[in-house]
Amino acid sequence: MMSGVPEHGAETARRHLSHVPAPRGEPYDLSGSVLDILTEGGTRVRLA
To answer: In whole angstroms, what separates CA 19 from the centre of its chain?
Structure first.
């Protein structure tokens, strides 16, 4: 456990944020989109 957050917290968040509806109701991978934006901007992303 790191910083008081359960170890499964990142996986749970990623799983739920990968299936959020877009404004018009179609499926949208929010976590994937955020990772794409971060890496395109030169940020190194380490998935826990």
So the answer is: 10
Q: Which residue has the tokens 């299936």?
A: 19
Q: What is the pLDDT of residues 22-34, one digit of tens each?
A: 889 888 888 888 8
DSSP 1-48: -BTTB-TTHHHHHHHHHTTEEPTTS-EE-HHHHHHHHHHHTT------
How far apart CA 20 and CA 10 sit, in angstroms, is 16
Report the C-alpha gap between 30 and 14 in whole angstroms.
Answer: 9
CA–CA distance from 43 to each of 7, 21, 22, 39 (Å)? 23, 26, 25, 5
Q: What's the whole-model pTM score? A: 0.57
